[in-house]
What we know:
Elements: E1 7-8, H1 12-17, E2 21-25, E3 28-33, H2 37-46, E4 49-52, E5 57-62, H3 66-73, E6 86-92, E7 98-107, E8 110-115, H4 120-129, E9 137-140, E10 145-151, H5 155-160, E11 175-180, E12 184-189, E13 198-204, H6 208-218, E14 225-227, H7 229-238, H8 273-281, E15 286-292, E16 303-306, E17 309-320, E18 325-332, E19 342-347, E20 350-357
Parallel strand pairs: 1-3, 4-14
Antiparallel strand pairs: 2-3, 4-10, 5-8, 5-9, 6-7, 7-8, 10-13, 11-12, 12-13, 15-18, 15-20, 16-17, 16-19, 17-18, 19-20
Amino acid sequence: MSGDALLQTPLHGWHQAHQGRLVDFAGWSMPVQYTSIVEEHHAVRNGVGLFDISHMGRLTFNGQGAESWLESATTNQVSRLAVGQIQYSLMANGGGGLIDDILVYRLPDGFAVVCNASNRVAVVSEFERLRPASQPTLLDRTIDTAMIAVQGPRALETLQTVINVPLDAVKYYHLTMGRLFDQVDTVVSRTGYTGEDGFELIVPADAAVTVWEALLKAGAGAGIRPCGLGARDTLRFEAGMPLYGHELSDVTNPYAAGLGWAVRLEKGEFIGREALRGFKARPGLTRIGLRLDGKRIARQGSLVRHEGADVGLVTSGTFAPTLNQSLAMALVDPSAATLGTRLSVDIRGRDESAEVIKLPFYKRPQVAPSSH
C-alpha cells in the first residue's frame, strides 16, 4: 500500500504533532514510539501508559440470529457469555488454521467483535459468507469510533477520575457502559494485552482527541506516557501473549499455539471443527519459551535446533526490558519442548545456546484488592 493511501486513526494528527514515529502497520499509519520503546515499556510496567489502538477492527452484531451467527464462525462458546462478559476466541478456516484471534463482547443490546487490523477484511468477509437467513445486522464501526487502551498498575486510578462508573467492580474480561467527564459515552472493557491491569475505551471518533488529552492530564501524577506499538509488542511478548502473524497464522492450529482452551469442540457445528478435532489429538508443533544464553536477539523465522537437528522456528524474540534477558517464543517439535531442554537458535548463521523455559516470561505481582 502506498504511503498516501494509509488509513489514519482519529488521533493521527496528535501523534504527528507530538513526535510519534509513524510507520505503516497493517495499512494504517501508526506510532511505533514517541521517546524510546524501553522507556514506554517501563512506564506501563511501573505506572500507566496510553495506547491508540483504533486500528483494530470493531464490528457490532444485532438482531435475530446474531448469537448463532457468531457461534458458527468462532471456536469458543458465545452462548456462555452473560451481558457484560468478554470472551477470547478464534476464527478457524476449514483446515483448522486461523483467520484471526478475536474478542467477543456481550453488550446489553447485542454483540461486538474486536479483531486484528491486518485481518479485518478477512474477518468481515468470513462473517458475510456465513450470514444466516434471519439477516441480523453486522456494522463495521472501525472508522467511526476510536479505541484507546489505558494500561499499567495505575490505570484504574487514572481512568476512575474521569468516568462515572466504579471500575473496581469491572472484573477481568468484563465490560461496562460509562460516561467520560459527563459528556462522552463509552464502552469500557478490562482485558489488556500487556500483562498489566488495564482498560480499553471505545468512543466516537470525533471525541478521541478530547478523551486522549483528558487521560494524559488525569494520569500526569502517575507518570502517564503515550506509548507506541513497539512497547505494546515487547509488553505482550513478556506476558507470553500470541500475536497474529507470529505465533498465530492461517497454517498454525490453536493446539500448537497453546490456545486449545479457546476451542469448544463439544458446542456444535462451527467452521474448522473437524480439522481441529484431529489437531487436538496431534497438534504437530508446540509453542515454547526460550531463554538465550547471550544478549543476541532471535528474530522471527530463526531456525531452532536440538542436538544438531532442525526442530522448529522462532515466532517472536526480543531483549525483554523488564527481565533484562534475550528471550524468544518458538514453535517446535514436541520432542524438544520439555522445560530445561537445551536447544540452539541460528542467529544470522551463528548458533546461540538457549534453554526451554516456562511461559509466560512475566507475570504481574498480585496486589491485594483495595478495601473500598
